[in-house]
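Spend some time on the protein that follows and explain the fold to me:
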Amino acid sequence: MSVKARPLQTAEISGPRRAHLISGPGVAASLIKKAERPLLVVGSNASNLGTREGDLIDTAIEMSRRMTVVATGHMVGEFLRRGAKVHSMSMMSLGDVIRDPEWKGLDNEGGYDLVIFVGTIYYMGWLVLSGLKNFAQSLTTLSLEPGDQPNATWSLGTTTNVEWRNTLEELLKQLEVDA
């Protein structure tokens, strides 16, 4: 996997702290396995992205067996139509409550220690991750987007669509090993 630290939103500067680049799916799988309370945020762009195994929603449904999933925008309908359990919240509201150390989570069982973003509209992900980077510094964020998100703690970097799909498929395989 060849990754590049090249944000898609070139006019913005992420500041002196930027995301660590993930060198392969094993790093992402390790982060997810190590997390006590991971949260997967599926953005409204998920229906436009996919893997050879299916679309990104199918991938998120597979991941929902291991973690809480929240869908933003109109994506909740896609999950419900496929019979998956999912929470719904707008991206900006979610970014606001995640940074609150008193928030009890979507299931009232406590906050999250890892928040994973996939399928978000790039500039919205950029803004939410910037807020979390600056106001929830103990939170680890992971961007599984095909474009580099420098405001995340960890990012896949900018990859080709084929590399991105392969990475997600391998990540799912590695997560299934311990499931």
Remarks:
- The radius of gyration is 15 Å.
- The chain has a mean pLDDT of 86.
- Strands lie at 20-21, 38-42, 50-51, 54-55, 68-71, 87-88, 114-118, 140-143, 154-155.
